[in-house]
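Following up on my earlier thread - several people asked me to post the actual chain instead of describing it. Fair enough. Here it is, all 186 residues.
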Amino acid sequence: MNAGKVASFVELVKGDFRVNKTNAKGFAIMSMYRIGRAARFAPPYMKPFAIAYMAFYKLVTDIVLTVNIPLSCEIGPAARIFHGYGLVIHWKTKIGSNVVLRHGVTIGMNSTFGEHRAPIVGDYVEIGACAMILGAITIGDHAVIGANAVVVKDVPAHAVVVGNPARVVRVGKRLPALAAPGPVFR
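Reply from S.P.:
Thanks for posting it. Predicted structure:
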């Protein structure tokens, strides 16, 4: 790794710690994910250790921590995970910074056939427990996805969506919980 990647890795872990410092499981999940992402780009002499770590990551996250976060998905800095049980993320998903993920959340495809296209989740998005975000859709910045919502269409920025199928119930410029320009949780 070059110095730029190391600094960025350290900043990612610091951000994850800052938002998960009272949540050991969330911090453990995100730290393991960050190390696994870094291991993917290990120099040739470190590849055996990197491969061993990736196998360890898969075993611990899937079986012990009961989450499925592939190392190929992209998660921005300061991701906060509450509980984490049953959390499933598609391998091509892109998730922005300062996102809150709760237990039972599924972010993935809406079909087992065809091209693998996954959702894109913006910054400062809060996703409620057991919500599903399915298909090649975009969730706008500062959106709130309610618990048990099934989202199959794009969600505009600053929107609150609930229900099955999810529908927009509010769109506003400033939502109280996610209105801060910096990290949501300090």
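The radius of gyration is 16 Å. That should answer part of your original question.
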